[in-house]
Amino acid sequence: MDTAQAVEAIKRRLSLKEVVSRYVVLKPAGRGRWKGLCPFHQEKTPSFYVDEEKGLFHCFGCKAGGDLFAFVERIEGLDFPTALERLAEEAGVELPKRPGAPQNRKELLEVLRLAQAYFQEGLAASEEARGYLQSRGLTEESVARFGLGYAPAKADGLLTYLARHGVSPEEGLKAGVLAEKDGRFFDRFRQRITFPIKDHLGRIVAFTGRALGEETPKYLNSPETPLFRKREVLFAYPEAKAKLREGRAIVVEGLFDAIALHQMGFGETVAVLGAGLSEEQARLLKAQEVREVYLAFDADEAGQKAALQSLDLEMARQFLFYAVRLPVKDPGELLKREEGPALFQKALEEALPEVEFRFQEAAKGLNLSRPEHKRKVLEALTPRMLSPEPFDPVAERLKALVVEKLGLSPRQLEEYLASRKRGRTAPPPPPKAEPKDRVLLLELDVMALLLSLPEEGFLHWVLYVSDHVWPPEGSLLAEFLELARKEPRRDYLKGVLSRKEAGGLFLEKLMMVPPREEPRFPEILEKTLARLREAYYLERRAKLKALLAQEPRLELLKEIQELDQAIEAERRIYRGL
């Protein structure tokens, strides 16, 4: 199987709609079509469409569009080979081997599966590790559900275990479970409780190890690998999916905290693997139709800073945020208290809405009777009040709170914000407008019609168009027809055209082509070709008239008259006369 065949096999096995639904809430929009808010730009009215039959997505607002691979590349920030690897693994399609190619994802997943088996054997054999988990209040059910394990203190335990299963040290290093120093390989995790980190499909992609003693660091993460980027995963996300679909997410910092809250009955809890929520993690929540996000980060300064960082994400504007004020340092401490679940429920009910939390954090430690302290609060809140959206509810409520608490009049605040806005760096220029001349649009109509055909009839009609229309050399249609004769594969051609300067317009045309009934297709195509030939003739006629004005010659006049007759003939065709 070559790469092109692999791409086609992946598209047959994976639903574009299902993949997009992980990031975008889609609603039905006609037979085989769905729509939602575009994940690539801010909008309030859905202009993002997915057409399952055509295998395309397109935003009529920002013009982003393409096939399954284009979506994954753009949403995940990947290049094509990496997107191909990811989707092939998910679809169970084996990619062609390349000389010197890096470890493929399926093999890395197998290494991680073996590591998980080793760690779970380690937990079963270690009374100390099991006792530690019991001291944290975790039940056997929770330990089993989240797959906790233990990495023994031995430096080459996992190294030896993997070798017995045919895994080389280099493969263990690539999977992130072994380390290497001065040419010597050894276990990355030693004398640590292990937490398997899973992706959105529930596959183990990395580990975090928590020291049993006073070793540093207290928590040790797998390095980033082709499988694992910590910004793209949420701990406990696979276990929380069902509850997240009810519309609420609780986000914590610690892995123990997430497990503790699940055990206390808060099954919508997930944990970040860094400082605060990332854009990619926010998209995972949005894919489960989460509307409200409760940030239950640690009560210390670092936790509150992480909460503020999460609120400043571009994606954050798609949620209602609340900051949970914990009665203890972190949620995990509540697990050992009989009243723990009730205390956390009370903290959720008393959680601060985003606006009040922002104001309290900005005013912390300041005396609002002093003008210079009021100024500090105002400056801290200004970036969020300067919203590019005209009716941003958070910005508007924040302005109202600033007016109330700082003693400003609404007019004073608006004048201040206007002055700050004028002082900001000018926004980048808008993207270059795509060409929209009539000839190009008609050429795109022809290409969209051809690409809407089933594979078996495609080449026949490409040759028919080549015989019935004569695009100028260098035109997009001329390039398309030449390429289609050599490589008559629709998906390939769609990919090539979508990356052209007029790619956005092309995808728009393709999305708008209705399903064609075979008996009517020749008539529709013939009328479209007639309009295109007319446009070519009109362009030629305009050039000849300009020449005639400069140098009156009989042959020019005769050619213009012939063009007039040809134009009239084409008009009779598309008017059905």
Automatic annotation (TrEMBL):
Protein species of origin: Thermus brockianus
Protein name per its UniProtKB record: DNA primase
Cofactor binding comment, as recorded: Binds 1 zinc ion per monomer.
Sorted UniProt keywords: DNA replication, DNA-binding, DNA-directed RNA polymerase, Magnesium, Metal-binding, Nucleotidyltransferase, Primosome, Transcription, Transferase, Zinc, Zinc-finger
Zinc finger (CHC2-type): 38-62
EC number(s) on file: 2.7.7.101
Recorded domain comment: Contains an N-terminal zinc-binding domain, a central core domain that contains the primase activity, and a C-terminal DnaB-binding domain.
Classification of source organism: Bacteria, Thermotogati, Deinococcota, Deinococci, Thermales
Enzyme class: transferase
Domain Toprim, residue spans: 247-327
